[in-house]
């Protein structure tokens, strides 16, 4: 794997929090930043797939009935 570098700007409070997390984990700031970016990419990929599944289901007419929605809202007190 080829490695590249980049930089970003942030406020001192965020940087301090980031360093605190790295220290608590026994990891470097670089490791924590890479992990955060990897987790973000993974989540965004998953989210996009879920949205696409929802669009496909809607296109296929797969909707919850009014009764199913009323039951669901009732279960959560909404």
Structural commentary:
The chain is mainly alpha-helical. It has one domain (12-75). It has three helices and no strands. The protein is elongated and about 50 Å long.
List keywords for this structure.
3 helices, mainly alpha, 71% helix, 78 residues, elongated
Query: Structural class, please?
Result: mainly alpha
The biggest beta sheet is recorded as: none
- The termini sit apart by 50 Å
H/I helix tally:
3
Cα radius of gyration in angstroms: 21 Å
Instruction: Give the uncertain stretches in residue-range form.
Output: none
Helix/strand order, N-terminal first: HHH
Morphology call: elongated
The number of distinct β-strands equals 0
Rounded mean pLDDT is 95
Draw up the topology in text.
Blueprint: H1 12-25, H2 29-59, H3 66-75
Q: Quick recap of the structure?
A:
This protein is an all-alpha fold and 78 residues long. The chain has helices at 12-25, 29-59, 66-75.
